[in-house]
Design goal:
The chain is α/β, with parallel strands linked by helices. The chain has one domain: Rossmann fold (3-Layer(aba) Sandwich). 42% of the residues lie in helices and 16% in strands. The protein is globular, with a radius of gyration of 18 Å. It starts with 5 loop residues before the first helix and ends with a helix.
Length: 297
């Protein structure tokens, strides 16, 4: 018989409560969970349809590093009536399993996403990505612009900037946590206006990050690789993009915003009061602005 400590039982219960809330919000957004096998890996995703027909355009929502499909729950609810949604758990995130011998670089994550979309018979789509997901969106429209109708990059990673070089030179990883307090400081970095989450839930999330420390170290090392990043003089030949940035982003510096702005030469939207995850911090305002861009002909 396995006897769990009081602390472990409390953490597991807190996590179950958080998962229940996430699943309830997904249900309210009329999202259901499904999966497809991609090269032997079961990839999970949310969608609002089982059949991707031509009556609605497809919108793909891509989370950032260490997040999952649930981060888009409230945002997705505002797009369901106009779009068929695909919201995956990337490799090693959410319900999509982590394997120590897998590849977690952005090109590999993009290959997995494209394989999923191919299995769903989705040829053309628009995409919204945050942080690592924003970098994935850029990689996709750079390599196959004819498949992507419009793209929105929200505080994207991937700028080959002095900040990124310093992170790599000094082996810095904001997702590597040994104790609760380090996680709480990290949580303060990612959002200027975070939605309310009870302290007991945050402690459970901290416990999960601590337990996944080796996993996140491995995955971050492969994702945060200058080989896949874009230099300041790079220019994307893709006109249908929008760059969104929260000026209170404490995870990526504002210099990275100017770096991306030069590369994209796209529509730009700045939120002075928001941080690294604007689509979570102010769902109503950000979703309205993105819908306006996506629907503009």
């Amino acid at each position: 018989m396995i006897i769990l400590s009081t602390k472990l039982r409390r953490m597991l219960l807190s996590r179950l409560i958080f998962d229940f809330v996430n699943r309830t919000e997904a249900k309210l957004a009329r999202l259901y969970c499904d999966s497809r096998s991609i090269d032997g890996l079961e990839v999970f995703y949310h969608s609002n349809t089982k059949h991707f027909s031509s009556d609605k355009p497809v919108l793909v929502l891509i989370h950032g590093f260490s997040a999952d499909k649930y981060v888009w729950n409230r945002f997705a609810k505002r797009f369901s009536s106009q779009y068929h949604l695909v919201i995956p758990d990337l490799k090693g995130h959410g319900q999509t399993a982590y394997h120590p011998d897998d590849d977690y670089s952005v090109p590999s994550q993009c290959q997995m996403l494209l394989a999923l979309l191919d299995q769903l018979n989705i040829k053309h789509f628009s995409i919204v990505g945050n942080s690592m997901g924003g970098m994935m969106a850029a990689k996709l429209f750079d390599e196959m612009p004819k498949r992507i109708e419009k793209a929105v990059l929200i505080d994207p990673a991937g700028a080959k900037s002095p900040f990124a070089q310093n992170m790599i030179d000094n082996k810095l990883n904001p997702f590597e946590h040994e104790v609760e307090q380090v996680f709480f400081k990290f949580y303060d970095l990612i959002m200027a206006k975070p939605p309310f989450i009870p302290k007991f839930i945050l402690r459970a999330l901290a416990w999960e990050y601590i337990n996944k420390r080796a996993q996140y170290t491995h995955m971050f090392h492969q994702f945060f690789n200058l080989r896949d990043f874009y230099s300041r003089d790079y220019r994307f030949d893709y006109p249908e993009s929008m760059l969104i940035w929260g000026l209170n982003d404490k995870l990526l510096p504002v210099d990275d915003f100017t770096h991306w702005k030069l590369m994209l030469n796209s529509n730009t939207l700045i939120y002075e009061d928001l941080g690294h995850m604007p689509m979570v911090e102010d769902v109503k305002r950000v979703s309205k602005d993105i819908l306006s861009f996506l629907n503009k002909h």
